[in-house]
Amino acid sequence: PIYSGILAETEANMGHVTASDGVELYFEESGAGIPVIFIHEYAGDHRSWEPQVRYFSRRYRCITYNARGYPPSDVPENPAAYGQDMARTDALAILDHLGIDKAHIVGLSMGGFAALHFGFYHADRAHSLVVAGCGYGAEPDKRAQFKTEANATADGIERDTMAVYGRVYGTGPARVQYQNKDPRGFNEFMDQLCEHSTLGSANTMRGVQASRPSLYDLQDQMRKLVVPTLIVNGDEDDPCLAPGMMMKSLIQSSAHVVLPRTGHATNLEEPALFNMFLDNFFHQVEAGKWALRDPRSITSSILSDTT
C-alpha cells in the first residue's frame, strides 16, 4: 500500500497540457511552494533541469515540460506550427492548466528567449525571469550567418537523423567545456539529445531558432521591462556574451552573472553555482529586496559626475 501510494502520487504529477492551437505538451511537476517553471534549450528537454528540480523542489513547486517537437509532447509536421510566439504562449498554457497565477520563469538558450518574451507580454504572471545562455545569432552582423547555419543544421538533421547529427551538434565550441569537466554528465546529455525527434528538431531549428527576432530589435521592450531579471552566461559561450551585456545595460531590473570557464549549458555544467545564484535571486525577489538599478549608477562619466 505504501509503494502504490507513492506511485499514484508520482503519476499524478505528470501529464499533458493542450496549447492554444491544440498541440499537446508533456509536463512534470515536483515539490510544493512558490512555482518555478523551467523552459529547456534546443539541445535539451525536461530532463535537462534535473539538477535544478532535485535542489529547488525541496522548497518550491517545480514544473518542467517538453517544448512542441520534443516527445512525449506532440511533434507537429507543419513547420508553421513552430515559432517564438508559440514558445511563449506554450509556457503560458502550462501555467494556466496548472492554475498558477505567477511563477519564477527560468529559461536556458531557446528557453531563455522564451522567458524573456514571456516577460515582455505576460509580466503580471512572472515573479521573476532567469534568462540564461540567451543570444545566439542576435548580433546584427551575425544575423545572416546564423540563419544560414541554422537552416543548414536543419538540413543535416533531416539528412542524417537526430540519432546521428546530434553527435555533431552536441560537441559544438560552447559544449566542449562540459565534456571536459564532466564526461559522465556530458555523455548523458548527448544520449538524451540523440533521442530527440528528427522532424521536431528540424522544424524547431527552422521555425524557432532561425526565424526568431534579434534581441537587438527588442531594445525598446527591454527598457520598459521591470520584472526582476537574472541574466546568466558562461564566459566561454562567446555568441551570448555581448547580448548578455546589452540586456544588462537596458533592463533596469536586471543583474548579470558570468560563470568562469563555462560554456553554454550553464545549469548542467556548473549546477551548484547555477543553483546558488538562482536561490539567492529568488529569495531577494520574494523578500521585496530586488530593486531597480539606482539611476545614479548610470552616467557617461568615468569617475564622478562632479568632475
Q: Would you write up a description of this structure?
A:
Residues 1-12 have low confidence and may be disordered. Helix 5 packs antiparallel against helix 6 and helix 5 (143-160) packs antiparallel against helix 9 (198-209). The chain is globular. Strand 5, helix 4 and strand 6 (126-132) form a beta-alpha-beta unit. It has an 8-stranded mixed β-sheet, with helices on both faces. The chain has 307 residues and is an alpha/beta fold. It is 45% helix and 15% strand.
Label this structure with key terms.
307 residues; alpha/beta; 45% helix; disordered N terminus
Secondary structure elements and pairings:
Elements: H1 2-12, E1 14-18, E2 24-30, E3 35-39, H2 50-56, E4 61-65, H3 84-97, E5 103-108, H4 110-121, E6 126-132, H5 143-160, H6 162-169, H7 176-181, H8 183-194, H9 198-209, H10 219-224, E7 229-234, H11 238-250, E8 254-259, H12 266-269, H13 271-286
Parallel strand pairs: 3-4, 3-5, 5-6, 6-7, 7-8
Antiparallel strand pairs: 1-2, 2-4
Mean pLDDT across the residues is 93
Measured distance between first and last alpha carbons: 75 Å
User: Could you describe the largest sheet, including whether it forms a barrel?
Assistant: 8 strands, mixed
Structural class of the secondary elements? alpha/beta
Report the portion of residues in β strands: 15-25%
What count of helical segments does DSSP give?
13
| Secondary structure tally: strands | 8
> Given the C-alpha coordinates, what overall shape results?
globular
Helix content: 40-55%
Radius of gyration: 19 Å
Main sheet: strand order? 1-2-4-3-5-6-7-8
The arrangement of helices and strands along the chain is: HEEEHEHEHEHHHHHHEHEHH
Poorly predicted ranges (pLDDT <50, ≥5 residues)? Answer: 1-12
